[in-house]
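Archive transcription. Copying these from loose printouts into the bound notebook so they stop getting lost. Printout 1 of 2:
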Amino acid sequence: MKKNYGTAYAAPQALWLTVFFAAPLLIIIAYSFLKKGLYGGVELEFSLRAYTDMANPTLLRVALKTLWVSLAATVATILIALPCGYSVARSQNQAIRLFLVIVPFWTNFLVRIYAWIAILGNEGFLNQALRFLGFRPEGYQFLYNQGAVILVLVYMYLPYAILPLFSTIDKFDFTLLEAARDLGASRMQSYIKVMLPNIRGGVVTAVLFTFIPIFGAYAVPLLIGGKDSYMLGNVIADQVTKTRNWPLAAAISMTVTLITAIAVFLFALKKPKEHLEVADVDPASIGHDLLVSKVRVKTMHKKGGER
């Protein structure tokens, strides 16, 4: 009789998740419903004050700014990562290009941030280059604004988007693009109508891998954006270390966690279908022949997969 070692193998993982994820999360939830201590910390008295304090107009503005920056940075990251992932997948030197994508991970996160400060600073490389070329952007700072924050966030999390997209694109059957072109589709139509639906799983993963950490970003807004570009991660840190309002910090943390959980749930509902979606191409935009041939293309692809 075979022994089932599944429980034994899962026990260390379950213990790890309980100690380092579930327990801290429960503590944060509990803190959010307690009263702020007179000298910091919490008092063991039930209170909803932390959640009512979140209706503060200043905090709401920071929340909206955080959402805007996160969405803008995520969209920009995906738009850049898609052609990059495609380039790596179609390259004859995949190992070299993957190496170039992964290299930034070898450098400390803060070191990369300070490298951008050296580039964008008033006496940084970019300003000096513009002055050398005869441009003098007097009164304008490349640092300490939302644009700089979005730029650096895109740079920081671009590899997280490229890798899942590369993995999905690498498995895509590119003969389908040729079939779509033969049936009258333009190059752009074949990418949008044929390729994108079939790599949707990679796109969803890339969005989650970028949006979630960006939404909770702390170091980049602090060092690149300054006070005017504070995000919710910075507010949480200030409530813990400066104001010492731990219940409010816990309540904001739970709100951030809830928003990211909702994002994950919504994207999970968009789970890609297993069947080929080339039949979704609009025949009127490509040609009448596609209407006759689309079933044939699906059948050929299905038979090829069975072989």
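Printout 2 of 2:
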Amino acid sequence: MAERVKKLNEEIDNLKFRLDEIKQDVMLAEGESVPFELESQVMKKFGQVFKASSTRQQRKQLLNLLVPKVTIDKSRAIDTIELQINEDVIRYLLK
């Protein structure tokens, strides 16, 4: 009986996780903005993964995944940095 309850609880956890993934997919497919909580999670995880990256190439790929565009002003200073938190970024960083 206890084993059955344990299996059911594990299945419930897996289904809840899957439901969250599906909600994120729908949200991204509809072009809705990313909720602040998810954005915050992604950025925290980005910092951890970036610091843990061992090679320059890994860091470059990670930055390219998250930052598709950087613009500079006339004085050659950074004007804007565009972040792209899409399905691929969420999957990669929150796996």
